[in-house]
Amino acid sequence: MHGVKQPRNPRSDGPAYITQCPIQPGDSFNYMIIFSMEVGTIWCHAHSDWSRATVHGAIVVYPKRGTGYPFPTPHEEVPIIFGEWWKEDIMQVLNEFVASGGPPRDSDAYTINGQPGDFYPCSSQDTFKLNVTYRKRYLLRMVNAAMNEILFFKIANHSLTVVASDGSYTKPLTKDYVVISTGQALDCLLESNHVPPRGRYYMAARAYATGVGVPFDNTTTTGIVQYNGDFVSTNTTPVLPSLPYYNDTTAAFEFIGSLRSLDPILFQLNKYDTRIYSTVSINTFPCQNNSCAGPNGTSLAAGMNNISFESPRIDILQAYYNHINGVYGTQFPTEPPLYYNFTSTDLPLFLLTPKRATEVRMLEYNSTVEMVFQGTELVSALDHPMHLHGFNFYIVGRGFGNFDEKKDPLNNLVDPPFRNTVLVPINGWATIRSMVYALSSRTSTYMGDEHGVHS
Ligand SMILES: [Cu+2]
């Protein structure tokens, strides 16, 4: 489950080797999903290897019976699922990626509702089309189910009003483009109020990618918004929106930083019981004869506080309940093992190699936790989407450079967005606060980077 709190129901959360062992081929597992406070769009996906690439779907949670939306009722609701598509079998792509030690092969296309769009001859007939009636309101329920890339999305000549993110209402935010990282969901209103010529308009998405020298799929996926009635011939070429440039960090964070929570804050945000300060980096492992495809023949890895997660032999939840020793450690460091200039481009090589471990940090039920994620320049600086399983968190701070407790004020303790995936800016940091009743007191939550690099 992606973004479902699942109170006292951690067995049905899903992450492989955290709350359950992977479901074996031919086997089955019934998930019982308990919804409690989610509202709007969230989603679910397969969680082992790269099965998420093709096994995913939106979950729509409607307002409680007798209550309505905190925004004008839409005329129609439309799922917009972004995906990433490779010509080869996805397992082959993954196996090659893991075997090489280098970055994964770039995808061949992004998709909107399963279709790359009519820039691709193979998809031109089946391009996703949204037929709209003049002067109506459409609720677009967007999910970014791509494997690796954060996306900019825009509809030509129309603006979008965000009303919810990651299953929680937001104050209405009207923009002519949105940013959606892997793992995130956005509910957006689209008003079909374009004055004549009403015509046909592309909706388009392409990557927001900032890593210097890091390859990425730079293609554009499209769908079409077309007005019903006499206004237009279906032969007219739709108007194309101009998306922010691939590495436009200003545009990305202007959008992300403008989101505000609509509902009252759920717990006191001005204090916390535990702080976990963690670096988030790309690392490398040495490779025999320097024969891997990562930098200088190494093999790529990912690390938090210099620990690269190692999958245990059985799931952590089972080991916890059954008191099985030797499956995980309880010493996930609450701060980086070494303080260096995290965002300097000139870092000593010894920092590159992380430890391999399965480390957990135990937290008290009903306590509050602050996590500061610090991006680093190791191998390559990137924007990292960080996802918390089981519960949303408030994004209370974000900035560029090295986090400095004294200098960096928290941006928002009043109405910060309540999300399950935070985008840690390139060469920057992000601070979240959450309360530990995520999956009941007796379980593990799992913080992971939605980028595919560590898979
Ligand atoms: Cu997920």
UniProtKB/TrEMBL annotation:
It is found in: Secreted, Extracellular space, Apoplast. CDD domains: CuRO_2_LCC_plant. Binds 4 Cu cations per monomer. It is an enzyme of class 1 (oxidoreductase). Its cofactor is Cu cation. It comes from the Eukaryota. It catalyses: 4 hydroquinone + O2 = 4 benzosemiquinone + 2 H2O. Residues 1-64, 76-229, 332-433 form the Plastocyanin-like domain. InterPro entries: Cu-oxidase-like_N, Cu-oxidase_2nd, Cu-oxidase_C, Cu-oxidase_fam, Cupredoxin, CuRO_2_LCC, Laccase. Its EC number is 1.10.3.2. Keywords: Apoplast, Copper, Glycoprotein, Lignin degradation, Metal-binding, Oxidoreductase, Repeat, Secreted. Its main location: secreted. Lignin degradation and detoxification of lignin-derived products. Belongs to the multicopper oxidase family. NCBIfam families: laccase. This is Laccase.
